[in-house]
Amino acid sequence: MKYPLDCEDNFSKSFLFWIAKFLKFKLNSLSNKLLEKAEELREINIALSKNNFTIEELDELAKKSRNIGMIGVNTYFNPIKKFYEQIIHYKLYSLKLIDEELVIEILSSITAGLSDASKKNHKIAIVNFFKFLSSQNKDDDSSYVYEIELKNWSGLNSSSGQKLPEFMSEEQMKTFLNTLNNYEFKSNQDRNKLAIKIILFTGVRVNEVLRLRLKDISYENDLISLRIHAKGNKYRVVLLNINSIKEHLEYFNNFAEPNQYLFTNKQSKPLTQAYISRLIENVLLAAGIRKEKNGAHMLRHSFATLLYKKEKDLLLVQEALGHASLNTSRIYTHFDNDKLKLAAKIANNLKED
Q1: Contact assessment for residue 287 and residue 195, using Cβ atoms and an 8 Å cutoff
Q2: Which CATH number is 170-339 given?
Q3: How confident is the model at residue 236, as a pLDDT?
Q4: In terms of DSSP H, where are the helices of the chain?
Q5: Pairing assessment for the beta strands 217-220 and 223-229 based on DSSP bridges
């Protein structure tokens, strides 16, 4: 069913109405392979059928959707949420006043400081949103069509170049690990330390750790095999030396059912990425390690950087991290400064001559 573009008495309500419609559309078009409870998705869909929302209510529904396995929803919802929070300050009276120039202005503001990959995700989400509006609204006998493609948006491939990932040096990783081993969390010591160590020792994404079930774990001599539910509904296997987590092996004995998640809260629901990132930030603080980005993803970058430093094998990094493209892994060559040292040596030889 199509609706008028300005379907409420004010701009904010109209925009929220369409965000809700877009969120519902995405929930039912994204892959549901990891969906855990179909009845919860049904309830979310029913909730999204009402007409009046706050952005906080929509945010909560998006989080619930992610928590039941609709992993990709945040990729679309979060950029639209940030866009809404900016555009309401422009005091517009109609959605028809939004054009590509205004979208670029707001997009440039909300993506400042983000990596090119994040900017690309924002661009895709915004373009998708306005394409959805164009196809779903009605204006008398026709739709109001937005021509927002952002082909000329200069936010990507800026002259500042590719932003290097934040990472810990090998010595900092050792300090972090030592601090983690001695750190006293308020509760769930084994759970928290084991989740963090798996990220540090394998480079898996935090959401991949949080989706681990008992059935995903197997043993091969002195190695633990972890079957990872990766991006794009694909699977890969990472290996972990038993000795690296030997003090936590008893933790696995707490689970009896193969489908049980390993890292859950008191309600037996998977922990959130934000929760794990807070734990890591606290350990980094205790270790005296300061980084611009202190979350769980920084541990993944640290693992990848160390792996490339030791092995100088991009294909190995690609396979270990589950990158679809070798170009994504190529950023970790930033640590390979052997050739730069050679250049410095040659320059110094000129001085000596």
Answers
A1: no
A2: 1.10.443.10
A3: 85
A4: 11-27, 38-47, 55-67, 73-87, 100-110, 116-136, 170-182, 189-202, 206-210, 273-287, 296-311, 314-321, 326-329, 338-352
A5: antiparallel
Our answer to whether residue 248 is catalytic in this structure is: no
Nearest to 241 by CA among 255, 226, 256, 251: 226
pLDDT tens track for 126-162: 999 999 999 999 876 678 889 888 887 866 554 444 5
Residue 230 pLDDT: 72
Please indicate whether residue 231 is annotated as part of the active site.
yes
CA-CA distance, 299 to 199, in Å (whole number)? 7
CB 140 within 8 A of CB 92: no
pLDDT at residue 152, rounded to an integer: 74
Token digits of residue 278: 């807070």
Comparing 166 with 234, which gets the higher pLDDT?
166
Torsions phi, psi for 256 (to 5 deg): -110, -35
pLDDT digits (tens, 9 = 90+) for 68-80: 888 788 889 999 9
Annotated catalytic residue, options 122, 123, 301, 323: 323
Could you tell me the pTM of the whole model?
0.59
Q: What is the model's pLDDT at position 280?
A: 93
Q: Based on the residue annotation, tell me whether 21 is a catalytic residue of this protein.
A: no
Instruction: Report which of residues 333 and 61 the model is more confident about.
Output: 61
Q: Rounded mean pLDDT of 283-311?
A: 83
291, 297, 309, 330: the active-site residue: 297
Looking at residue 352, its pLDDT comes to 55
Kindly list the domain boundaries of the chain, sorted by start residue.
3-138, 170-339
Of 81, 191, 205, 211, which residue is the catalytic one? 205
Candidates 231, 248, 278, 291; catalytic one? 231
Catalytic site residue from 119, 197, 300, 301? 300
**Of 303, 352, 319, 314, residue with least CA distance to 336:** 314
Is residue 297 flagged as an active site residue?
Answer: yes
